[in-house]
Amino acid sequence: MSSSNRTGSSPLTFILSGIPGLLMSSYWMALPLCCLYLLMLLGNCALLWMIKTDHSLHRPMYYFLSMLAMADLGLSLSTLPTMLAIFWFESTSLHFEACIVQMYFIHSFSAIESGVLVAMAFDRFVAICYPLRYASVLTSSLITKAGGAIFMRGICVVLPVAILIKKMPFCRSRVLSHSFCLHQDMLRLVCGDVRVNSLYGLTAVILTKGLDSLSILLSYMMIIRAILNIVSQEARAKAFRTCISHLCAILIFYIPLIGLSIIHRFGKHLPPLTHSLLADTYLLVPPVLNPLVYSWKTKQIRRRILILLCWRGTQQRV
Length: 318
Known about the structure:
Mean pLDDT: 84
Structural class: mainly alpha
Helix content: over 70%
Distance between the termini: 65 Å
Strand order of the largest sheet: 1-2
Strand content: under 5%
Low-confidence stretches: none
Order of helices and strands: EHHEHHHHHHHH
Largest sheet: 2 strands, antiparallel
Shape: globular
């Protein structure tokens, strides 16, 4: 590591910020955060368990949904250690290597989740535009290969980001703007030439979220055209309803992501609270809301939950 990354023999550390305006030891923030993480764990683990144990859910749509739940778990667990350390134990310092590892996992799981949303859009496209070929197109082999490709892309595209920033000298303020490490936030503390890092970071975003959002847009353009060609209004409404859960997941994921990217590039004049809250929303809200959205809008999952609740009620009465 460059000598500018160390002070004497002391390892380089960053200072993580909590939420501006709140005391670090504020239990008003710590308790809701714990509830949020607990809800995320319960919701996504329950989804995975239901899909695994219920054979009626062993279909392409639910396989992709299980991938989304795993990506959500990974994304949330990547932020969990530092978030709880700040608000429960007032521990704001993080070693350089640990910060890079956290940054890598956050961006990798974010890229994986974006890829899963594309796969789910393709699933809806085939189901609505080519319903008779659905089973022959979305085979178990294709789903496995798609999941592996999405996972490997998230790992490989983000890896150079971590390698490049590890070699950079940090000689300015070590205070980060968030409760976790993000590439853009670390990059602004570098005192060397960051053009290569910035260029590759932009390239990584284009290769993941940029291409993914374009693919989703094209898929839904064809889906809408197919729905409008359906003669029966009832069948048209039914076809559209099958896309609502996925559309909600897309909006929940991409709206905070786009907002965060914009304020990192052009919103340096905005108050720190805006940056912090938008970053927290981007990383914490989708993993919590996705299981709720799919449980509410997907009939098979909702029915499974009702059966479990009725069974538990019967067991308690017995």
